[in-house]
Structure formats: structure tokens, C-alpha cells
Amino acid sequence: MEANMTTPHDGGDEEEYVLLDLDGVSNIINIPPNAKYILTGLDTLNPVLIIDDKLKLIGEYEETIGTCIAFTEQDNPVVHEESGPSDANLFSATRIIDSNQPPTKEVKPLCQLHKVLKFKISPDSEIQSATTKDAK
Description:
By secondary structure, the protein is mainly beta. Helix content is 10%, strand content 53%.
């Protein structure tokens, strides 16, 4: 997950990107890919992430060391470009998409990160009390 924080700076807005790191809880809980979530308190020391109105996670910021860049990935179809002079070449200077080839992946830099927001399960989260009941 990724959050975009906006803070005022000299009368304008400065964007700051934050990576939401869920690795610390991913082996304990299963978060569906389309789960609804609410992220609050980005401007506090411990932001709160509530998933599906029942799971509460508490975050803590860590500064990145060195350069940390987030990338985006997108599918691109395989394209053949016809070139070269030819009287018989009816498709000169055209591009043909090859539907028999699987699309290639293109990776582009998205933003530079300055902070990582690591999450842990809140002591008052429903999942914590459900796990405690199952253990008895």
C-alpha cells in the first residue's frame, strides 16, 4: 500500500510519499486484496489503519536510509514496427500488435520515498481477541 501525504511548505503543497509496510502482520492475518480500509493520523507518530471495520493496526514511521524509490509496473503488448523502403510493403511505417505474444512488463519509477510506515496489530483489535479465544 502507498499513502500520499501533503504538507504545506512556503505557501505551496509539497508531496511526501510513504510506503505502508504490512510485512510484520502478513504472516499473522490474511488481508483480502479488495478489503476496505481507513487510514487516519498520518500526521501523528502512530497512524491507525482499520481494515474491513474490524482489524485495527498501529503504525510507526521509520526513516529510509539512502535512496528508496517505488516503481510501477504495467503490461505492454508486443509491437512489431515495419520499416524499410519497399514497393511491396503495404504496412510501411505502421505498428502491428502481435496477439500471439504475451504482453511484456514495463517498469517505471513512480516516486522517491523518505519514510516507511510499519504496522503491527493493535492490542484492542478484534483479531487479537479472536486469537486469544482460540488458544484457550
